[in-house]
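Hi W., the aspartic acid complex you wanted:
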Amino acid sequence: MLKVLKFGGSSLADAEQFRKVKAIVEAEPERRYVIASAPGKRFFEDEKVTDLLLRCHALNKDRNPFDDTFQRISDRFHGIIRDLGLKLSIEDELETVKKAIANGVSVDYVASRGEYFNSMILADFLGIPFLDAEECIFFTADGKLDSKKTNTVIENRLAMMPRAVIPGFYGVLPGGEIKTFSRGGSDITGSIVAEAVDADLYENWTDVNGMLMADPRIIDDPAPIDIITYRELRELSYMGATVLHEDAVFPVRRSGIPINIRNTNDPADKGTMIVPHTDEKSEDRVVTGIAGKTGFTAIYIEKDMMNSELGYGRRVLETLERRGISFEHLPSGIDTVTVVVHTSALEGKLDAVVADLKRNVRPDTIRVYDNLALLAVVGRSMVSSPGVAARVFATLARENINIRMIDQGSSELNIIVGIADKDRIPALKALYKEFAPKK
Ligand code: ASP
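Structure:
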């Protein structure tokens, strides 16, 4: 059994958090490889070290002094080292970074130093070796992850190292320059390492007890999700439910490695398991999660005998493609097709697209619905439970919410409904009430 662990910024924000991390790592011998983020927020108004680093870079770029901001970064690292009683000295290296910033070093290099120092400190505290991401995470010249090289190098290096701490968030370009992933990218590093060492589990330690059935900003105290499949996760993430960096899912998913989202501040909680497949079903949990997102536009096209007109759908999509617009959903009837796109993708193009469509596909009717929100009711158990769709529609009807569009994925994993933006929150509340597990 082999586990790769990633600890987020709030899990490594101060010495007290470092102690929790140590207890977690040492609780199981199979917890061998640890990916660390930069120190995050200790309290609500606090600032992440990554943000402070980025500010230093920005200040210097505008020829402003950045000494005070840099001092705060230095104080945070020194505070952790002191409070943990470590002998590690990073003074000289911090000075080198400060000089490099003053000399205009790249923003990615600066941003990456939070992970670098925090991982060195963690390695020292855990008493296990440090492996720099610059030696094992590789990008190609055009800035994409070089998966092949990365995989091989990590596999070989870690074969010689039974345990290691590796900084998240960055790697190296062919020329030797540091490059970071997008924000929150330590999740990706963890996933890459888990794949390369063929881990049995990727534990992603954060400050919540895993995923929730609905957005806690909208629903009071939503039920936690114990287990969710990768497909379900994809459907819910698309609608804005996020716990993990989107790109972090692919490496482990590809290898069928489960992810366990856990809470550093509540290690007794089992968290959420994200798995390739599961047979686990519960009568009480026909629906795994409910999410909704605004910002869509639907173009509704009607034409008699559309079904028998060869190439009709293709011409509709081709028209959009020529304007560089990709579609999100495509529900259709015998004589109708609706193309749902992100409203932002149509900016400044809507009139032209409608004119193109009128010319290219000669619809009997064409209507544009703006301010559309999409809701997704997602659940692997829906396939075997008749009547879920009926319950969704009845619930919305009871709330007097008008449904503008319905799409049921062919996998029967999700039901998507399009409604007016203004109805999104009441709809989510009503649907949650209908499908929440009975306590
Ligand atoms: N420290 C980086 C950020 O704040 C990366 C991470 O924490 O995953 O985005």
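The two ends are 35 Å apart (CA to CA).

W.
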